[in-house]
Amino acid sequence: GEMAVVPAWSSNGNEIAYMIIHKEQNDSMQTDMFFSDVVLFNTVTGERKLLTSKAGFTDQAFPQLVFDEDDSYLYYTSITNYGTGALTRIELVTGKIEIISNDPKIDDRFPHIKKF
User: Fold this and answer.
1) Where does residue 4 rank: exposed (0-12), middle (13-18), buried (19+ CB within 10 A)?
2) Most buried of 27, 61, 83, 100, CB within 10 angstroms?
3) Separation CA 33–CA 54 (nearest Å)
4) How many CB atoms lie within 10 A of CB 59?
5) 10 CB neighbour count, 10 Å cutoff
6) pTM above the 0.70 mark?
7) Minimal CA–CA distance to 87: which of 69, 106, 70?
8) Could you report the per-residue pLDDT of 57-83, keeping only the tens digit for each?
9) Is there a contact between 18 and 43 (Cβ–Cβ < 8 Å)?
């Protein structure tokens, strides 16, 4: 009964991260993003794990979820109190969430991992 959007596969192929757009949106906040959950699905065990319910989905924009090279972190956009996007990562083993954008008033979105 849920609609999974913008799925992203882990490098090892064992996990799929996806978003579920909330049916009820926060009308008091000015933002063009939709409040969403980020879910991690293990293709081996069939386990579903809610990683966060504070993600922001932007229509017709990709990528919205990105695993790092060794599948330790998942990067996504969260919604700040200003209604802007903040690049955010979650450590998949511990569940620790870290906002990596510097200024909540600047609209940072669409994570992308590069090798340097």
Assistant:
1) middle
2) 83
3) 11
4) 9
5) 18
6) yes
7) 106
8) 888 777 789 999 999 999 999 988 888
9) no
